[in-house]
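--- STAGE predict ---
source: upstream dedup step, 1 unique chain passed
mode: sequence only
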Amino acid sequence: MVFYFSGTGNSYHVAKKLAEGLGEKMIDMARATREDAYEYTLKKGEKLGFVFPVHAWAPPQMVEQFVQRLELYYEEDVYTYAVCTCGQSAGETMSILEASLEANDLSLDSGYSVITGDDRIHACIISSLYQLPVQSVAVLHSVRDICIHPRSG
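--- STAGE serialize ---
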């Protein structure tokens, strides 16, 4: 299950590529918050992912609050990862998110940052890699690597 929050579309597109690559469902954290929808059940073997932009070298406050209110039901230990999109640096984003997860008895197994550089990552929807700017190709490869080679710990 891939939970995402996106303002400009960068994190949405990364989340979409991850969900497609992993064969998992996407949940918009902003919409879930508006609908007061915090209860979810993970299927056996399903990963738990969070994708969001970096705001002032930290996760957006809404993401932290969502994570803390999240009620998950699952049968076995869950592999939890996060991907943040940022211009240059993720700052303390992953350690702050990890604290929010731990407050909800969850742990962060892997954290990634995808440097988008600017708000033009939406170019990833173009079908041919050869038509994409070099930076967007690097983002696609980063997302592909996360799907194929998740790090642990």
